[in-house]
Each structure stands twice: as C-alpha cells, then as structure tokens.
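Q: Structure for this?
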Amino acid sequence: GDSVTQMEGPVTLSEEAFLTINCTYTATGYPSLFWYVQYPGEGLQLLLKATKADDKGSNKGFEATYRKETTSFHLEKGSVQVSDSAVYFCALKGSYIPTFGRGTSLIVHP
Amino acid sequence: GAGVSQSPRYKVTKRGQDVALRCDPISGHVSLYWYRQALGQGPEFLTYFNYEAQQDKSGLPNDRFSAERPEGSISTLTIQRTEQRDSAMYRCASSTRVIYAEVTDTQYFGPGTRLTVL
C-alpha cells in the first residue's frame, strides 16, 4: 500500500537558517504530493502541492519538487522565521484516500 | 468565509459511554473526510462522503464507529461503548470536488476534537 516517510523531529534551527525536511514515498501510479502545516492549536493547512513529476510547489518561501526518480518531495526554505515553528506533514494522494506521514516538528529560535 | 468547524473541541468521557462528534464543513463543499490522529502521528483515514453518500468506510476500526451526513452538509461521527484506545484527536476535512478520480484536490481541515476516554 501507499506510505510516506518523513524525517524524525524535532528540527531545531536558528532564525534565518536554511531548512530541509525530507519526505519519501511509496505509491503505485502517479500520486499527487502535498505538504501541510499545523500551527499550535489549529487544524492542518495546505502549504503547497505538486501533481506530477518535476512539478515544484511553492508558498510563503517554502518549496518542494516532485522527484519521481527518487520518490521524494523534500520541503525547503532558504531563511526560516520564528513564526514558521509548527508541525509539517507530507502527504500523498494516489486515489481518494490520502496517506500522511507522521509529521516533523520544526522549532525556530530567535 | 468560515472554515471547517468541529464540536466539541474537547470531550472527556467514561469508558462505555457513547460520544457524537460533529463536523460543519465549508459551505458548498461536497466531499467530507473523517480522520483519527494519534499523538505524534499523521492523520489516519476513517471514512468519507460525497454529498450525503458514504463512499468508503474502510478506515473505521470496528463496528462501534459510524458516521452519517444525512443532508450532505453537517456530519456526525459516533463512537459507541467507548474504550480507552479510542482516545485521540478526531479531524474532519472538506473539499470542493467529487473525488472519485481526483487526486489533486485540496482538503481543508477543521481544528479537531480531542477525545479522552477515562
């Protein structure tokens, strides 16, 4: 079945540092890939998505590229802010049932 | 406009009691999902609806769990004879499209209901 593997957290960074959160997946066919973000006390919000190979999703300075050859969808940001502190979930959707990773907590210090 | 809302936000109940969790999706959204999320895990699919029709309930853990969406809008997830292992965050999400073959659709999540079974 489909699965998503994310790097374990927490990831702790200083403000303005470069961020990478790794995500790899296993799926049949051609899934769409998503990153969701969950701020404390809130629901999951879509951060970005990519629907086919080599697509790059981007939003709020975050980027991720759909790499079919490596089955990866790593999340990157060039300069993180304290306000980026949250839990980030990688997800895939090959049919109507989404599969989520277990989430990676990001803590950004001033 | 208003997002997805869920109530109650927190529910504490005793083992053996029934609970009903409510989800009010974004107005006009036709698809509605229920998920369960354990601490430190991602959301796990339970069931979903297109309009009032329950399309898939394969993720419901057992027959104590049921869900309905009688008028194609508000949905209720009911857990009968609750057990301690049912304690989790229960999340609802809605999306605009009928999603039989639509893999690109974006889901909008509610804040969740934290259920604690004592």
